[in-house]
User: Fold this.
Amino acid sequence: MNTPGTDQLREIEKSGKRVCIQTFGCQMNEYDSEVVKAALEKQGYVLTDSEEAADVVILNTCSVREHAENKAFNKLHLLCREKKNGRPNLTVGLMGCMADNYKEKLLKDFPQLDFVAGTRNVMDVTRLVKEIEEKRSRGVPPRNDSAGQDAQPTRLGLARNGTQTVIARSPAGATKQSKSLQLAAISKEGWWEEYAETVPRREGVRAFLPIMTGCDNLCTYCIVPKTRGREVSMRGGEIVDQVKKLADQGYKEIQLLGQNVNSYGRRYVGEDESYRTRKEPNRFPELVAAVSQVPGIERVSWMTSHPKDASRELFEVMRDYPKVTHWFHLPVQSGNNRILKRMGREYTIEEFHEKLELLRKLVPGAAVSTDMIVGFSDETDEEFEETRRVMEKFMFDSAFIFKYSLRKGTPADRLPDNVQQAVKEERHRVLLKLQKEVSRKVNDAWIGRQADVLFSGRSRVSDQDLIGEMRNHKRVVVKAPAAFMGNVKQVRLTRLKDETFYGELCEV
Ligand code: 5AD
Ligand code: SF4
Assistant:
């Protein structure tokens, strides 16, 4: 095999087109962006953070709240305007949940947008970019440039039950024969197999690993089932093999990703949708135990969970397997049963509380974080007050608080969005303030205690200090030698500043 010499490498670098990927939204999007970056780099593209310097700009988008979509729309407007007014060779692409949410409409509304790739077509992005650039270099102008009329988008793949989307603009002169653009013929229940072959770029000692995608729950406010589609899980053996590879590369912590990891294993890639029913027990506890026993792995964590699937069995795995995290993100959403019912959450606040107590009993020292939505359809002052009281009583370690944002196409689209914006803002403010006090109280109780800390990086403030995390994910800064990076050491916690602990090594 011919390997390129230094000169050739320089040439590649000089001619390498520059790509800028901007990511909005969740950890899964972050992961997808890293996968696309790695795949493009492999093809000779050079990564840049600068939109101005880029030949290709890709927005990886989120649809969970209107605010996130608006940010991406604004960015897209600006990019398209620039492309129209003087940067005609800029390639603009959009991926992520907004691709699945709006599909072809995006190409109609943004004539300068070159392609749209859905969440299950991450691996098609490189091919799309190359094809578009190659067509342009052959001088094939986009149809709308030449004719001044709206381009007819070419569908590169039809969405299976509306969830998988790859579309690119048809170039001028495209005829019925010009099917080469249909290269992204739709995947992909086999989505993960290709995906897993592209090792994303990672930093530090923590590697993220998607184990499932999609969501079969019916939370009425949530757009995810529409954008990411039905739940599908990767096979356990393949996941463990991936983890072994990651451990060999020196990663110490694995964070298992999915919209709903707790229902892992109900249906695997390639299985018929009716194969497993929702009644079947999930296989997540087994998977966590297996992953945690891979040699070299010091910690296993996951994001994100639905409380109804968080089981005693999983809590026991947290208790019994020493490499398993003591952090649980358990979104409660509301403290009022009528609102929980309207949200389609499938638990009462009493059931949630029982689970939380069980977790805390079986896993002492566990940290629990949560999500809450204020101002959901019809939420009265009294109902909000119950949520406030829940926050006070349940003593979460931390909480993300969101103002309800009605999403078109969700079941709650049929319910009135009747809490005024000013009221949502006030409730948001009240909860933020309260949680700050609660977090402070919970964290103060840790001062003076000892904890196992996994060191993951250097402190930005002092090069004598390392940053690490306790088993329950609380951040700690400690004076320690750089050689401790990637190791777990006992630390005494001495003080707290904002959400960060400071401590000292128990033995050097
Ligand atoms: N409005 C506000 N918050 C939402 N979330 C999901 N959908 C919406 C919406 N339409 C929040 C939930 C979820 C988190 C990821 O985002 O709290 O747990
Ligand atoms: Fe959305 Fe509910 Fe699924 Fe989470 S569990 S992704 S909130 S539908």
